[in-house]
């Protein structure tokens, strides 16, 4: 039911709002090459010794996690369900934290013009539960920076949720995207 309500809200938003424009994007200005280092790395925003990666692992584990030491800085074990394959993992080293909308994709959709602090904020955004997900290494690397027209989760039951998560991130960060294609993908995957 929650997914259905989110889906309705996203379709309404996609259908009624014009796509945000990006300063300089499409106006003859050349887009610089994507450089992963421009986006930063995991940080510990709340200074509790757990960086963004650890925070996501803790939040998404289906059981209470254990830690490598008494300070609780690094996760030692938990239980994660890969959102793309449905596989279950207990070792955090078998997990990567995936940006639902990949950094490279955001870069070429106008994020190249963002100031460094906005890029770092995007990289570490924990405010939207759809933005960062713990995914198995194999699935995450298969996805890479590919969009839904060239990659979809191998588990067909995961595809609708994946499209909804992507749209949530696009809208939250006002990232330019093809809204007609997004609605078509929603309708196709969320039957």
Structural descriptors:
two-stranded antiparallel sheet; alpha+beta
3D structure, described in words:
The protein has 191 residues and is α+β, with helices and mostly antiparallel strands. The protein has one domain (2-7, 44-189). It is 37% helix and 10% strand. It has seven helices and six strands, in the order H-H-E-E-E-E-E-H-H-E-H-H-H. The protein has helices at 2-16, 52-60, 103-108, 116-123, 137-143, 159-173, 179-189, and strands spanning 66-67, 75-77, 80-81, 88-89, 95-99, 132-136. It has a two-stranded antiparallel sheet. Strands 3-4 form a two-stranded antiparallel ribbon. It has a two-stranded antiparallel sheet with strand order 5-6. Helix 1 (2-16) crosses helix 6. Mean pLDDT is 88; it is low at 16-28.
Please tell me the overall pLDDT. Answer: 88
Strand fraction band?
A: 5-15%
- Give the number of domains: 1
Classify the oligomer: single chain
Q: What general form does the structure show?
A: globular
Question: How many β-strand runs?
Answer: 6
Q: Total helix count?
A: 7
Order of H and E elements: HHEEEEEHHEHHH
Structural class: alpha+beta
Unreliable spans are 16-28
Physical arrangement of strands within the biggest beta sheet: 1-2
Taking all Cα atoms into account, the compactness measure Rg is 17 Å
The amount of helix comes to: 25-40%
Span between termini: 14 Å
């Amino acid at each position: 039911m929650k997914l259905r309500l989110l889906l309705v809200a996203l379709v309404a938003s996609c259908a009624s709002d014009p796509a945000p424009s990006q300063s300089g994007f499409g106006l003859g200005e050349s887009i610089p090459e994507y450089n992963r280092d421009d986006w930063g790395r995991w940080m510990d925003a709340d200074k509790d010794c757990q960086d963004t990666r650890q925070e996501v692992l803790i939040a998404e584990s289906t059981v209470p996690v254990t830690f490598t030491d008494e300070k609780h800085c690094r996760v030692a074990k938990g239980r994660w369900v890969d959102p793309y394959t449905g596989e279950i993992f207990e070792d955090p080293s078998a997990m990567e934290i995936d940006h639902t909308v990949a950094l490279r994709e955001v870069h070429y959709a106008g994020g190249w013009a963002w100031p460094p602090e906005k890029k770092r904020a995007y990289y570490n955004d924990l405010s939207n539960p759809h933005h960062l997900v713990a995914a198995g290494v194999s699935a995450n690397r298969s996805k890479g920076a590919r969009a839904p027209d060239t990659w979809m989760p191998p588990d067909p039951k995961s595809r609708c949720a994946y499209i909804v998560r992507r749209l949530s991130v696009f809208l939250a960060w006002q990232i330019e995207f093809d809204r007609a294609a997004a609605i078509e993908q929603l309708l196709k995957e969320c039957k």
